[in-house]
Amino acid sequence: MQEMMIAKARELLKSGAVQRVLGWKAGEFAYDVEPAVFESAQELEKSFVYNDFCGSNLSKYLIAQSRKEGKTLVFLKPCDTYSFSQLLAEHRIVRENVYAIGIPCQGKTDGETLKGKGFTGILSAQCEGDTFTVHTLYGDKTAARADVLPERCLNCKSKKHMIYDELLGEDGEVLDSHRFDMVEKLEKMTPDERFAFWRGELSRCIRCNACRNVCPACTCEKCVFDNDASGIAQKAAADSFEENMFHIIRAFHVAGRCTDCGECSRVCPQNIPLHLLNRKFIKDINELYGAYQAGEDPDAKSPLTDYTMNDAEPGIVYHRGGNQ
Amino acid sequence: MSKEFDREQILRTSGVNPRKCMRCGKCSATCPSYDEMEYHPHQFVYMVEKGQLDELMASKSIYKCLSCFACVERCPRGVEPARLVEAVRLQVVRQQGNNHLKANDIPALLDDDLPQQAIVTALRKYSK
Amino acid sequence: MQNEMTTFKPKIVAFCCNWCSYAGADLAGTNRLTYPADVKIIRVPCSCRVNPMFILRAFQRGADGVIICGCHPGDCHYTTGNYYARRRMTLLFSMLDFLGIEKERTRVEWVSAAEGAKFAATMNDFVATVTKLGENKRLEDLRCKK
Amino acid sequence: MKQLSLEKLNDLFALIGQTEALYLPVDDAAGQAAYRRWQPGYTLSKALNTVRSAKDFFFPQTENLVDFKMQGKSIEVIDPRTEQENFVLFGVRACDARSFSILDKVFLADPVDTYYQSRREHGTIVTLACTRPEETCFCTVFGIDPAEPAGDVSCWIEENTLFMKANTPKGDALLTLAAPLLSEGGDDAVAAQQAATRSVLARLPLAKLSLDGMGGESMLKLFDSDKWAELSQACIGCGTCTFVCPTCQCYDIKDFNTGDGVRRFRCWDSCMYSDFTRMAHGNPRLTQRERFRQRFMHKLVYFPANNHGEYGCVGCGRCLSKCPVSMNIVKVAKALEGEVK
Amino acid sequence: MQRIGVFVCWCGSNIAATVDVAAVSDTLKNEPGVVFSTNYQYMCSESGQNILKDAIRDYQLTGVVICSCSPRMHEATFRKAAAAAGLNPYMVEIANIREQCSWIHKDKAAGTEKAIILGRAAIAKVHLNAPLTAGESPVTKRALVIGGGIAGIQTALDIAEAGFEVDIVEKQPTIGGKMTQLDKTFPTLDCAACILTPKMVDCAQNENISIYAYSEVEEVKGFVGNFHVKIRKKARYVDTTKCTGCGLCTEKCPVKKVSNEFNLGLDNRRAVYIPFAQAVPKVATIDADHCNMLKSGKCGLCAKVCTAGAIDYKQKDEIIDREYGAIVVATGYQPIALDKYDEFAYSQSKDVVTSLEFERLTNAAGPTGGTLLRPSDGTHPHTLVFVQCVGSRCEDDGRGKSYCSKICCMYTAKHAMLVREKYPDTEVYVFYIDVRTPGKNFDEFYRRAVEEYGVHYIKGMVGKVAPRADGKLMVQACDLLANEQLHIEADMVILAAAIEPDPSARHLATMLTASMDTNDFFTEAHPKLRPVESPTAGIFLSGVCQGPKDIPETVSQASAAAAKAIGLLAKNKLTCNPCVAHSDEWMCNGCSACEKVCPYGAITYMDKEFRMPDRTTAIRRVASVNPAVCQGCGACTVACPSGAMDLDGFSNSQIMAEVDAICKMK
Predict the structure, then answer these.
(1) Does the residue C34 lie in any domain?
(2) Which of A237, B75, E186, E203 is the most exposed, having the fewest neighbouring CB atoms within 10 Å of its CB?
């Protein structure tokens, strides 16, 4: 696939159809692939990669790239296309300036996930078929592919591309995932257990803003939390309240717009399962207002800018969940 | 078993909300078995709502419904009377305690001329 | 302990839309229908003006309960405002519950300008509910408590 | 050299914990190591290092500087500080141990930061030698020997034994306190472990990282390098690198209105943030490229230029594993290497 | 820092009895920014107002807090007083310590404490108040009426009578609408044409009225008082200024088999036609889909016979740009399609007709010249079955409508009665679910059908209509009261089809940013108190576009809409509510979330060039609020994640300051 992508990118650069290519660039180790812009065939040859570590969602970079002169070629995995489509619906990307190529994805892992699975001192890693081989300072180790995938890929919602100009490889299907299982499990807990769970998680937050800055739904020119005039600006969580506040408001601001790409949880240095907050909103929206997947239909009205006269009353919250 | 229990059970198994009925009678107007029935589809809806279950459960009408679902199809309010008839029948069958027809027994009973609809209807009527 | 419980006075913030609920609150006053002084009303043009930020802010600053009152659905002065408010608040309350924060501390009630009695009854009931829950501990900011 | 059977480690913790606050790395809910105040039942994490560095204890993420209390139209100024308690920081790695000397150069230089100073004075640092360094480690580049960590007390864990060596009077005092549990000996075992560790260190992929040419001499050349645009391209402007970094020391001072007064606190800031050093006229660093450059120029150029060649990095590797877009100081150093040659 | 004055009112003993007013004014005197604080017996009295005015002048107050009764009572009074003293009226805030404090609390200590807190909240808000100025916008003194049925005609006539110009836009070649197709009207049975056509002629002759028939609204921009509308005048291929309406062309046209929509396809017309004799404007129209000349260039017969030389095959659609101060929507209705009702055999038998078709079949100007004949074979029908509620009150969205169409009970009674009167040899059955006759003389009318004319009213629905080979229609129904199933051999079945809004209304609503309900009826600004206004300022509703109604109701609503529009047009300038939303362009993302929740269409987007923080320039899409249209609900402020959208007078920071003051720990 990587070869095909390079060949395609080279061809489009050469013909002048695009002026730059947004893709992934090899790093120091196997896993530290970084998003990068390539402007020449040489650059592509030198460092363009597409492998099992290309997890980062490139769609947010298009906000800036699509405002540059000329066209940007971008490679989008199925889940990235949801973000791309949602950003288009919000007028954040100049569509004419983007040439989007859909590429297949079998799930992406990352260094942190490997380390979490006990691989330390990683020097390089390969995947053949369903087996991952990791060469480490302390010897070689193998693992089944499914065992080293992060949660978001194990519960992949779709292998189908929502929008593209061209597709490399086969398009997949929308999948039946178990992505709401954990939300459901939490819902079944008592409020005390849930409170303890979330305190345990959110108290680790260091307010580095990685979740916000990587999020393709968080594209505000100026975030309320950075804006002193908003009255709720915070630079650090000086109190447990501010940890809650930040994450509640952030989840609320992306509610109905979050495509569940899972970048927030991927980048969190403290491994806080932030995606659960977004999924809670998605699940509630699905249950209360009908199935809705952000990024699926650019013309659909997002649930929070829509209503029906017979919507559930807020009191429904008192009757739901495992805490009667 | 109490009447209230029966009623709850019937409402639950049928999934029908009889309160949605606006008494237009289109179910009975459309029913091919009308003349065979002592209680007609619209009466089922009304009587279940009012809890007059003894009459219904004792009536042969519950076996006269062909399960053709014309009433379900035509009802402007989505009340689905046939499901209610079916639920009343099931309630009777359950109280009798016997499963009169098991799916596994069907192949032996089959007759080439028997329409599929009849088999399905029979299974609906005689099994739990 | 017993004594502490009975003397606990909750702080309640009530956001009332200008057209229905604020008028309903006025009517409760005109009819001399009492409810605890713990309830303080903030006038907003419409229930859709209530930002989740305001609700969290109230808890941060020491509120023990927050109630939002608006026109009955379909009666909104601005036609659709309370429909949006209804969705927003439903989702917000559900999220608070998801975080283990007592859901009884937040409420939405539709009160028309004619429902002074309902306004007073609602406030009495809400104050009683929140009083039973006690002080807001799960969404407090210790810096604001001394 | 003193030694203690690991079976008695909890007794040691209990003993220290009785008189002072004892902090040590334990595994958190996500399975990563974090410093926690010791309490019975806590066990020392096996992880190589904590996500957050040990700088938290001397330079916490948020710290209350002063309170203003308002009553009507009068204002009262209150110093919120209470007496600083003594504390022991156990299990600090060599890289973090070095970071304190870098922080000292900032906070203990005139005018002395008394908040920081007080914590330094009351804290005893017990370091722990590394035995299984990872690919992201490059402390040796800065002359740090993770097999011989600094600190008030240095420790090694080999097999079933903890070896301890006091390096300072504070360290002596701690070992004296622990004396009832300790016995003499262990030099050979420690030396053997050090040899083994050092052989791994030599094989680390970043062991040969070159910082030649960094430092004050090539300041302008590096500042004007056109590599920055490409390097900073992927940067999303979050503060992860700065917040996990043991040497980042920038902070902002904020006022929090408590309703009846103002609480003035300082909190970590990140030069990667768009509002960092924002002044009345705006932000002097207009784009992420400049903000990104600032961070690495500071660590690799400005800091050594002002501090006798000492870099503002200790090679702990946290930013290498935590950056959301896998950009880090090593990539920057390698890219810039060509610029000065 | 503001210089704030606090004025605590005793309201006689209304406040003073349960609130220690002196304690309140003394305590609030110590609040930051408060430079003056006093209490007085009746702040709203003239002397109370003078205290306020004097203090504003003497203490150079920049903000005022009045602790008194509800702002709904005296906010305007105090604002006016402040303005008289030179203070911006929006620098006044009221702390409601009567209705929401003294009147509901009995304990004086608690009441006093609460009054102080409410005062503090108001002070906190005033600190953040900014002077607001109500803007003004001019009013174009012309109204647009969209739809030329009876509703549109009545509205236009009323507005024109008041002396304002009105334009009627009608998409059909003639005005008149559905009413022109009706035969008689209930409950008086006067002939529809006899009462409608004079009104149509009045429209044509009124010099304040311009009729744009065969035209459609293409674009609406602007806002209340200042709408800019593009009207597409479709090509008729006939010069309306020359055509005399003689009808010669319509007799000579060789294309004879075009389905006649005026008679609902029950007969045919030519490719050039005048819908009916009393059409207004009475000019011919060439149907481009069927005209040989326009299709193939071969024919030209009509041009040859036209002595006025009015035929113009080269005519093009014309776009007319007009400005209006008010727009009245009168787009009306149509019966629903019955193709999903197979059980009634509507598509299978010609003798199953809708009630509107039945109107044509009994109309003297209809295809049968007013003699009731079976459409299939032209014979006289003996048994007629009327079925009510076909598609009305139906929960199945795919088939029908959930609402009651309101007019069917009455026109069915009318039809049944007329048939029995004219043809006493017929048997007439009406199957009903409920008969709804609320209206003046309505129930009497229905009873007459039953009692005098012997119409068989049967409670129950028809289940099935089966056409038989011999031409009879087998009607199977249930008589619920007799509890028996009926089988009737009928000659004709007449279906009272539900009515639905005209399909063009949906697109129009989007252009007008006027909201619609789920059934595509326009929603009114208030269901009880503002029933003829749309929530979008300057848009008024007339007739069935707002909900099913009969002719008398339509006409009264049309006049009401006209009255509202006249009220608007009579103004020279509109004063805008200054408490409106505004967008901070620097923070705006251009995401459109605010636009989507704005019930008034007050938010538009524009691409604007900005000098970015990195000193480059960039074109950014940003929201802008039209203060003349915004009503200040604040829905947008919460939809906006960045907080770029804020509401003057109720800003985020003001409300949070109030929250802070209320929650403050003591």
Answers:
(1) yes
(2) A237
Fold equal for E235-316 and E581-648: yes
The alpha-carbon gap from E368 to the nearest alpha carbon of chain A, in Å, equals 46
The kind and range of the H/E element at E112 are helix E108-128
Candidates C89, C91, C102; CA nearest to C139 is C102
Nearest residue of chain A to residue D136 (CA atoms): A121
Residues of E in Cβ contact (< 8 Å) with D286: 613-615
The whole-number average pLDDT for the span A116-132 is 87
Burial of E617 (0-12, 13-18, 19+ CB in 10 A): exposed
Structural domain for C108, as ranges: 13-131
d(CA A89, CA E623): 15
Could you count the other beta carbons within 10 Å of the beta carbon of residue E358?
25
What are the residues of chain B with a beta carbon less than 8 Å away from any beta carbon of chain E?
Answer: 20, 22-31, 34-35, 40, 42-43, 70, 74, 76-78
Measured between beta carbons, the chain E residues lying within 8 angstroms of B76 are 389, 393-396, 399-400
E strand segments, chain D: 2-5, 21-27, 33-37, 62-71, 74-78, 87-92, 123-128, 153-158, 161-166, 183-184, 251-257, 261-268
CB pairs under 8 A between A and C: 124
Neighbours of E291 (CB within 10 A): 21
User: Closest approach of chain A CAs to the CA of D295, in angstroms?
Assistant: 15
Within 13 Å and on the Cβ side, how many CA atoms surround B34? 22
Span E15-61, pLDDT tens digits: 999 999 999 999 999 999 999 999 999 999 999 999 999 999 999 99
From the CA of D206, how many Å to the nearest CA of chain E?
36
Closest CB from B29, B35, B70 relative to E460: B29
Q: What is the pTM of this model?
A: 0.77
CATH no. for B3-97: 1.10.1060.10
Structural domains in chain C (count): 1
Report pLDDT for E340. 87
Q: What distance separates the 2 farthest-apart alpha carbons in chain B? A: 45
Of residues D62, D204, D240, nearest to A208 (C-beta): D240
Strand, coil or helix: what is B12? helix
Q: Do D258 and C146 touch (CB under 8 A)?
A: yes
Instruction: Fold for E4-132, please state it.
Output: Rossmann fold (3.40.50)
Which site among E520, E583, E587, E619 would you substitute to test the A interface, given the most A Cβ atoms closer than 10 Å to its Cβ? Answer: E587
Largest CA distance in chain C: 49
Asked if residue C55 is part of any domain, the answer here is yes
Strand residue runs (E) in E192-336: 209-212, 215-223, 226-233, 258-259, 268-269, 272-273, 285-286, 318-324, 326-329, 333-335
CATH code for position C125: 3.40.50
Is E592–A222 a contact, with Cβ atoms under 8 angstroms apart? Answer: no
Can you tell me the distance from the alpha carbon of A228 to that of A224, in angstroms, rounded to the nearest whole number? Answer: 8
Q: Residue C3: what pLDDT?
A: 46
Q: How confident is the model at residue B98 (pLDDT cuts 50, 70, 90)?
A: low
Instruction: Map tokens 């129930």 to a residue.
Output: E443
Going by C-alpha positions, the residue among D23, D11, D2, D9 that lies closest to residue D86 is: D23
Query: pLDDT tens digits, residue range E173-218?
Result: 999 999 999 999 999 999 999 999 999 999 999 999 999 999 999 9
> What is the structure's pLDDT at A322?
45
Among chain E residues, CA nearest to A229: E653
Compute the distance between CA of residue A162 and CA of residue D60 in angstroms, rounded to an integer.
45
Chain E residues inside the 8 Å CB shell of C75: 526-527
Q: Does A227 contact E589 at a Cβ distance shorter than 8 Å? A: no
Q: Is E664–D282 a contact, with Cβ atoms under 8 angstroms apart?
A: no
Q: pLDDT (tens digit, 9 = 90+) per residue, A167-208?
A: 998 899 999 989 999 999 999 999 999 999 999 999 999 999
